[in-house]
Amino acid sequence: MHNKQSYFKILIFTGCLMIFWGGCKSVVKTYQSPNVEIDSLFRGNHLITNDSANIGSLHWKELFRDSLLQALIQEGIDNNLDLKVAYSRIFQAAAYLKQSELSNYPSLDADASIEYSKKISTSGAVSHVHQYSLGVDASWEADIWGKLKSAKKAQMAAVLSSEAAAQAIKTNLVASIARNYYSLMAYDKELSVTLTTVDTWKQTVKVMKDLKTGAKVTEAAVVQSEAELYATQVSVPDLKRNIRETENALCYLLGRDPGKIARDSLSVKEFIPLFKTGVPAEILAGRPDVREAELDFRQAFELTNVARTYFYPSLNITANGGLSSNDLSRFFSTGSLVGGIIGGLTQPIFNKRANKTRLEIAKQDQLQALYNFKQKLLGAGQEVSNALYSYRSATDKIAPRTLQLSSLHKAVDYTQELVRNDFADYSEVLIAMQSLLSAQINQVTDFLQRNEAIVNLYAAMGGGWQ
Prior knowledge:
InterPro entries: MdtP/NodT-like, OMP_efflux. By secondary structure, the chain is α+β, with helices and mostly antiparallel strands. The chain is built from ten helices and four strands.
């Protein structure tokens, strides 16, 4: 009868606690996305249209149509070590999430023990006592204030953040491979132009020597033309070094040993129209690094909620049951059954400022995450603005550069002919040839700038991870 009354009291107490729990108001706050102004985020909004087709939403194969470049990008995605590390971090975060999803369930432990003791009576008699025990212990923390729920939300944000981080790495990887690929083709073109110019200078030196023999120019003209030949030849080793270093950089991105890179030759390759860039909101939604920063803020927000709950009492219910007997032959009899249940509230009173410190640190972590999110937005605006204007400026230079080269080719031909007929000084030939080489190299730089601007714009709008 006494045992029944005890269990009845425990049940009543537990029921009161549950009623108290149901009447408790959650102390955690509801998450809201940071309120930031994005309409003025991009300089030169006239370059951004309201077209719904955003270049950042394209698959990288739709933008980069060079089959050799596509093969390199795919190899990088398959083998890049930074990307593999990012994927591993996703699995880690997912494992923590699975653990947090079970936090609302009770923990259960089983134990078995044999206790031996020896007793000596006052008369000197010795008795041996064995106590055999087998049971289970269960404990459960009720989520009164939303601590466990907020912790789970924080871990979910961590998983999504790690996924966004991997997407950001993939975006940068695709862009880096494309940039190095175009740089490699540009160096090839510069080397080809330089070697062609070396051959031209050799012909010029021969012509100057013939003209000196005919007393039409002086030895100074011959020496000056030779000096220009040697100056052009000096740039060849540097270009070859640049080619080799760029190949090595590409191999690093691809996760392979340094070696040759298969590539096309630089030409005016057509890309999709860039007027379809999307509106600012679409651009930001497509950037994985911006999503990562917001998810980091979300995680910090939920962890601040968790820190708040430590100021309030926690409800813990512990139960145990099993078998216990000092006679192994009667171990499984009803008389060996034991059990109990305990429910209680624990209110922190003084714990050396641990709870207050925890909350202050969590709030500062949340504030830092907010600043980081805003900084990512500013960086996104800068990158998009720079890429758009860079493409515009590179495109604007194509027409006048073409006209410049046409005029310089004519200037070289005209001055060489005039020198042969004593109507011009040899210095005019040298100046014309120097200008032609410089313009040819600049044309290569213009095409490289335009290609890099497209790559940068694609990455700035969050393209490449799809």
